[in-house]
Amino acid sequence: MNKNICERIERYAIIGIAFFLPLSSGAVNTLIAIGIGFWLLGKILRKEARLAPTGMNLLFLLFFIACSLSFIHSVDARTSLQGLVKVLKYFGIFFLLAEGVRDLKTLK
Predict the structure, then answer these.
(1) Cβ contacts of 28-35, under 8 Å, gap ≥ 24
(2) Which end of the chain has fewer CB atoms at under 10 Å, N or C?
């Protein structure tokens, strides 16, 4: 698969998320999964191991460590795991938007 196709699918997923946000939560969740999946696939195809250099990356890492520590010391592991998955989903949304919006056309 071509890396340009991955970028195009990412862009359409971002646009679709913005469009379907007031209409359907199921469509939004599907587009989020598609966008994050193709963002990761594009990273693999471009052989990029690093994230975009933002000041938020260190804060996200610290927050994820805190969430992981709370998972270890939790009474209900299933609920904590669901919360950890939700945190990872929101991190994925942030990185999808931070690296997926590359031009003014996509932003508009």
Answers:
(1) 32/89, 32/92, 32/93, 32/96, 34/9, 35/9, 35/10, 35/93, 35/96, 35/100
(2) C
Give the global pTM: 0.74
CB 31 within 8 A of CB 16: yes
Give tens-digit pLDDT for 7-38. Answer: 888 888 888 888 888 888 888 889 888 888 88
